Structure formats: structure tokens, C-alpha cells
Amino acid sequence: MNQRHTIESLLTNWGQAQRQLPSNHETIKSQTISHLPTSTLGTITKPLGQRRVPWATIAFASLAIITLLINPQQFSPVILTKSGSIPLSGTSDNPGVARESSQFAPITDNREFIKTSYSATLRTRQIEKLTQNIQIIVHGVGGQVDSSTSSPHWGYVSFAIPANQLATFRDQIKDLTSARMYVETTSAQNLLPQKQLIEDQRQQIEVKLQQLRDEQTRVKTDYTHAIALINSQVESDNNQLANIRARLEVTSDYNLRMELIRQQNILLVDKQTLEASLVNKKTIYTNQINTLNAQIRNNEAMLNSNLNEDQQLIDNVATVQGTISLSWISVWEILEIYSPINLIALIFIVVALITYWWHRRRNNQYIDLAF
Fold first, then answer.
1. What contacts 166, CB < 8 A, 6 or more positions away?
2. What are phi and psi of 155, to 5 degrees?
3. Mean pLDDT throughout 329-352?
4. Domain ranges of the chain
5. Are 169 and 141 spatial neighbours (Cβ–Cβ below 8 Å)?
6. What angle do CA 317, 322, 327 make, to 5 degrees?
């Protein structure tokens, strides 16, 4: 057993001592290298710990993360006003909105007079074409275009349509562009407080008007009675004067004639007083009637104005005032809209992946040439 172990050790030592390159190893090496691809010549496999770190990949990945943290949002639509500027907060481009009222309608009155306003913003690359299509849609639902402006980079349409056609109008406008390029805003307000205020004013006007008409009737009745009484007294005086004149013509008695003359003078004075009273009452009556007629006409005009205001409110509720702003959109913005994340961050991610692939490819090209 020991002898076998000794022989193996001797052979091992002799083999290690005799290890050397063959005399033609350069020829063998040249032949081997000639069969390898040209791109792999002169490369050798590096140990794992000596491979280069993919700094470019790390840099682009870091930029992508920073971009996402700073600006994660994609598309924030800009609403343009008629002049093409951005509206300030608290302003409104919607015409025809009913006046503001601070009063609230009681819950017992459950009527609704809903006033609806509409506005939308569209992003498109065909401003002028969409502006014309919007006007065609407005006319198609029975509306009217109040104003419109279009240019290569922005457009604006102000219009009014029937309230019962709003749903149809909205659907047709949405079909003009992609949902991601369409922003719509609608607002609704119950104008019941304004309606109640108009009705209260009309009730007060009608009550006042009825009082004036009743007063007018009373004044006319009193005047008629007063004139009739005075005329009857004047007629009585005339009859007595005629009787006295007839007696004076036939009597010659001095004392009787003097008495008849005295009575005649009294009747003449009374008649003059009655006639003066008649003129005075007619003057007073005329002034009263003129004043009442003026007040009645004024209240009738107020009532007509109130009725017109009420009708205007009804028409206002039945009408939707709206505006549509159009703004031109670039190809870059379109890509941003449809990109799932921030487009710049996405580009950084793609570049990072490309650099990482290139880094791995270069590392995999190293081969071990151990000859």
C-alpha cells in the first residue's frame, strides 16, 4: 500500500517538473485566433469584481425618477377667453346669467327654475375646421351663435341653445375630438328666489293698482253725487227766481215788491255760491282724477315691466348660454397626453434601458482566451 502511494507521488512530481509549452504553441495559437470573430480579438473575460459599473444607466434612471417627482402631471388644459387670455378667478365669460340674489327660497316652495351654463375647452390641430363644425352643431340644435373667432392657434365660440337640446349638443361636441382633449364645465342654479321676488313685487303692484282704481271709482262717485246735489239746488233757485219774477210782473204793492226783490237777491247770491262751489268741485275733481290716472298708469307700466321680467326669467331658464375655447396642440403635447407617465421621464427610462443593454452587451463580448 505504501509502495503504491510512493510510486504515485513520484509520478506526480515528475509530471509537474516536465510541464512546459510545446515548441509549436505559437503556431497553434495563431491558427485558433484566426477562427474567432474579428470583434472578439484582443478581449478577455474580466473577473466579476473588475467589471465596470453602468454609470450612464444609473444617471438616466435617476433623472427619470427626479422628473416624475417634480412633474408627475401630464395635461392641464388651458381655457381661453374671447380675447385669447386666461380668465382671472372670479370672472365669468357666460352672458345672460341671472342677477345674484342673497335670499333663499323657503323649503315649502319646491318649484325649480334651473338656469344652466356651459363651457368647454378643446385641444386640436385643426382650429378653423372645428370652429366651423361647432357653429354648424349650434344651428343644428336650434341655437344661435353670439360671436366666434378663429386663428391658426386658438378659437372661441359664444352661443345660446335651447335647454332641452343640451344633452344632444354635448354628445355632438364630444365627438369632435378625443376625450383626453376635451374638458367640459356645466353649472346649474335654481332661480326660484328671483322668481319669488318678481311674484312678490307683482302682488304688491296689483294690490296698489286695485287700491288706486277703487279710489278713482270713489272720487268719481262722490263728484257725481256732489254735482247732482248742487245742480238740484241751482235748479231750485232758478225755479224760485222764475216764480218771483212772475209775481213782480203782476203785483203793484210796494211792500210786496220789496219783499220779492229781497228774496230774489238772496236766491241770486245763493245761486252764485252754488255755481262757484260747482266750479271749485270740478277743479278739485279734475286734479284728483289726473293724479289717480297718473298713478294708475305708472303702476300699470310697473306691472307690465314686472310681467316682462318674469317672462325674461322663464326664457333665461329655457336657454343655455355657453362658450367653447379651442387651443392648438403640438405633437409633443399629444404624446404627453397619451403617455402613461411624464414624457420626459419616459424618454430617460428608455435611454437608461438602452445604455443598460449596451453595457451588458459589451460585458458579454469578453471571452476567456487561455492558451
1. 116, 118, 320
2. -150, 160
3. 68
4. 195-316
5. yes
6. 170
